């Protein structure tokens, strides 16, 4: 039986790959802020895909999404909270530091919290909650705020797993290392930095959105029903380093 899967950030990068993996068998709902990006992603995925344009950093956006899933599907089986990103500091003063921290907490923590909490009442038994952190949560991100915002998701998943465990709903975090072919780095990736990041892996390659999509799909399978409250890293061993 096909499931209902909500993927935030589903229009690009990791979220799009996750949505594409589930869309082979399940109904997927893509969520993001840019309607044109979502429309073309949904068209690419075919009849199993629909979308809602919503800013999940806001309560209103999450509530609109929840109304859509309730009206159209009645319930939800899998929540994949891929939306996120790294807002860099725009200057040196305290105001700039404060703004970057606030933005990163909104972008990485509140988008996930609003999504999960808005859909929680619709989650079916045996459902799945997937949060997306980063290797940065373990080793920092240079600006503090991105890494800290990702680390905040780890105890949130543990509390969700505790709360939802009696319904056999699992909650886990995937923490990717460097993943290519996303919008995450914008125009900030240089060849030198790319080589450094790949050089930190033990298998000598960048991660791909498909790596994360396959892991997400497995965590949502019945076979993974006893895996919950875990933070699972997919980074080619980069944290261990050489
Ligand atoms: N790429 C990497 O190397 C890497 C490594 C570790 C972790 N990650 C994490 O993986 C996740 C996916 O990122 P990605 O690499 O696939 O980058 P991406 O292509 O930039 O994807 C981020 C997605 O989040 C959506 N989004 C951002 N803010 C939103 C909001 N307020 N409401 C709704 N949707 C929002 C964006 O769409 P709109 O702009 O249209 O809203 C976009 O589709 C992120 O959480 C990121 O932190 C990435």
UniProtKB/TrEMBL annotation:
EC number, as in UniProt: 1.1.1.100
Q: Can the keyword Cell cycle be found in this entry's annotation?
A: no
Q: Which InterPro entries match?
A: KR_dom, NAD(P)-bd_dom_sf, Sc_DH/Rdtase_CS, SDR_fam, Sec_Metab_Biosynth_SDR
Give start and end of each Ketoreductase domain: 3-182
Q: Which GO terms describe its molecular function?
A: 3-oxoacyl-[acyl-carrier-protein] reductase (NADPH) activity
The kind of enzyme this is, by top-level EC class, is oxidoreductase
Q: Is NADP found in the keyword set?
A: yes
UniProt keywords, alphabetically: NADP, Oxidoreductase
- Name the source's superkingdom: Bacteria
Q: Which Pfam families match?
A: adh_short (PF00106)
Q: Which family does it belong to?
A: Belongs to the short-chain dehydrogenases/reductases (SDR) family.
Record-given protein name:
3-oxoacyl-[acyl-carrier protein] reductase
